[in-house]
Amino acid sequence: MAKVLVVGSANTDMVVQTSRFPEPGETLLGGAFHMFPGGKGANQAVAAARMGASVTFVCALGDDLFGRNALEGYSREGINTSWVQTLEGMASGVALITVNASGENEIVVAPGANSGLTPAHLEGPLTQKSDWGVALTQLETPLEVVAFLAKSTRASGVPLILNPAPAAPLPDSILEGLYCITPNQTEAAALTGLTAREAGQAKAAAAALMAKGVRNVVITLGKEGCYYSGEDGAYHLPSEKVTAVDTTAAGDVFNGVLAAGTAEALPWKERLQRANRAAALSVSRLGAQSSAPFKNEIL
Fold first, then answer.
1. What is d(CA 153, CA 86) in angstroms, rounded to the nearest whole number?
2. Mind telling me the catalytic residues?
3. pTM of the entire predicted model
4. What are phi and psi of 144, to 5 degrees?
């Protein structure tokens, strides 16, 4: 079975639906309120698990109701939580999300225990380095954790996929030799200084990242699909057209499915087609982890 190590964040998403986003200082009456398990790391772990991968998740939770509920949810998904850390005196992370009538979202995250994850928390799972078909991480945990994971996986030969979200500057030491990076349009622009709103522009941004030593670059383009440049050449894969209900976690679903396909050693184009299809399905549903499709749905 394909084995995936996910290192990242775990949050509880509190979602309010509204006709439009409020202006500064404005109060709007919204619609329905929902509470979902979320966090980029957790969303990606669930998405990979629903593809049939054997997933181990490393994260930090608070010793509170949100943390206990999150652990129960990961177990229901069949995710190995042996290395999940419960940090005394810290609250679990939460995200406040507003979703407008077009399905677009605005998100503010209070990281809580996510900020307490340290490189020391990775030492146990990384001793099993021969087991991992791929590792996957994001930027909702301290950068020192990401840097340690990048260095460790580079030394052991485990391919690492870095989803550089939310956008933040990255040192060249992380990018050099990195197996794969998956920025969206905004993140690609932040990393390279180049506009990447569509496939033609994404080509230059991908080239800039490869010049820093990244082996494979996947720039996600929202409803336009994704642009790939790397070991399998360079091409644009369009997305399937759906009616968007909630775009929350679409990128996370894409990355989780991409990681599962990488662990299976599928051809690049097949990995990306599955990830595109899964992301499209996810935006047609409300919620983060709850929107991740199962393998039979995308096949």
1. 24
2. 252
3. 0.92
4. -65, -30
* Phi, psi angle pair for 182, to nearest 5°: -130, 65
Residues 6 or more apart whose Cβ sits within 8 Å of residue 10: 37, 39, 41, 42, 57, 59, 60, 61, 67, 70, 84, 92, 93, 113, 114
pLDDT(130) > 80: no
User: What pLDDT score does 6 carry?
Assistant: 98
Determine if the peptide bond prior to 125 is cis (ω within 30°): no
Return the ∠ at Cα 14 (arms to 73 and 53), rounded to 5°.
Answer: 30
Quickly state the pLDDT bin for 197 (edges 50, 70, 90): confident
For 10-31, how does the pLDDT look when each residue is reduced to its tens digit (9 = 90+)? 999 898 999 999 999 999 999 9
Task: Tell the CATH superfamily of the 3-19+32-294 domain.
Answer: Ribokinase (3.40.1190.20)
- In the chain, where the domains are located: 3-19+32-294
What pLDDT, on the 0 to 100 scale, is given for residue 171?
Answer: 95
Contact 153, 159 (CB under 8 A): yes
> Could you tell me if 76 and 51 are in contact, meaning their C-beta atoms sit under 8 angstroms apart?
no
Query: Cβ neighbours of residue 65 under 8 Å, at least 6 residues apart?
Result: none
Residues 6 or more apart whose Cβ sits within 8 Å of residue 192: 204, 205, 208, 209
